[in-house]
Amino acid sequence: MKAKGALLVMVYVVCCWASDVVGAVEDVWITDDCIFEIVGGPDEPVIKRGDPGTEDINGGFEGGRVLKHNGVYHAFPTERAGIPGGLRKFDRINTRIAHWRSADGLKWQRVGTLYKSSGRVTTIAEDNPFSDRRASLWAAMPVYNEDEGRWNLFYVAYTVNMEIPPNHSFGRIWRAVSTVAGPDGLGGPYEDAGIIIEPGLESQHWEGRQGVDSFFPYKVGDKWYGFYGGAFAIPDDRVWRVGLAEAERLSGPWKRLGPAVNPIRTIHPWFVENPVVSQLADGTYIAFFDGGPASFGLPNMMGYTLSRDGVAWSKAVYIPLHKELKQWWHTMRTTLGVIDEGDNTYTVFFTAWADIRFHQMGMAKLRLKPEKLKEAVEKLK
User: Fold this and answer.
1) DSSP 85
2) 3-state DSSP helix/strand/coil percent for the chain, to nearest 5?
């Protein structure tokens, strides 16, 4: 399985990233275990090329989180800004963490930029202090910190070397704190408060050259856990996995869990990326994640996993949006989280590739099936 995964990853890196190969969704990944039914969604992206606010975004969106606060949707996507008139490869280097908002989830207004990457690449192969460690910024995850009474924003900062896969390497997770106290400080501005997890002596082999590539914290009782990701371990384990870190406080210090837990293989053995965690009404934890593209031999669908204790996670279930909605995308990418709208209805936002360059943002409506959730939770016991 490992050798097959390594081969598929190399094919994906060479083909899909280089030329945006279009892959079909295979029904083999679709099961009857899904706890949601798809009940609606627009026939086009909710933010697409040419919409107000996208004028200087060359490559669209990928990663981040969407929240609903005081009846308003707030999105914190990574904008693949690129260089005006520049090559497509720069879309993944010159990035911005932005804030968008919407009253209905369909029409969006860009509020502003929270952080901008340096865009400076390096020719050094190692994790060297002389390399720019904020060359590319991604995956902003706002989480409210009750202890501080302020929003915290977690995001990853990479060193970039265009000659060595995976190009974005030695990820460091920054914690930033809103300068505006209270729940209404969601939009920031934010000030960096330090790095909470990074490559070093505590790194685990599976985190690879790219790790740490994502981070999402969630509270279980009096303790915090955080999904964190990695990829491109040497020599041949080029797969995307996640593990868990723990802390007594959201601000840290954060400590990786040991090999009895990390990496988590129960969800999918070699591809889980950018999980975003919520809790369902019955207390079950649910993490939505990027399930991987078809050209990688993967579902080309968003996936989710369930947990009762926040540590042991179930096998992935994939949601076939393409079966019920007009499929304006060819490759599904990052899930931006799910929002509980009440009455067992949820809104999920995602990014997806719709053309050769511009990655757009979509939305779908789901309805929870209580009987299916009960069956799934029973299996977790």
Assistant:
1) T
2) 15, 40, 45
Question: Per-residue pLDDT tens for 245-274?
Answer: 999 999 999 999 999 999 999 999 999 999
Position 185: which residue type?
A: G
Q: What angle do CA 180, 79, 243 make, to 5 degrees?
A: 80
Tell me the pLDDT tens digit for each residue of 83-94. 888 888 899 999
Closest CA to 206 of 164, 159, 173, 240: 240
CB 244 within 8 A of CB 296: no
* Exposed / middle / buried, residue 177 (Cβ in 10 Å: 0-12, 13-18, 19+): buried
Residue 27 has phi, psi (to 5 degrees) of: -70, -10
Q: Determine the Cα–Cα distance for residues 287 and 153; give it in Å rounded to an integer.
A: 18
Domains in the chain, start-ordered, CATH in brackets?
2-380 (2.115.10.20)
- CB–CB of 81/90 below 8 Å? no
CB 361 within 8 A of CB 45: yes
Six token digits for residue 365? 């409506």
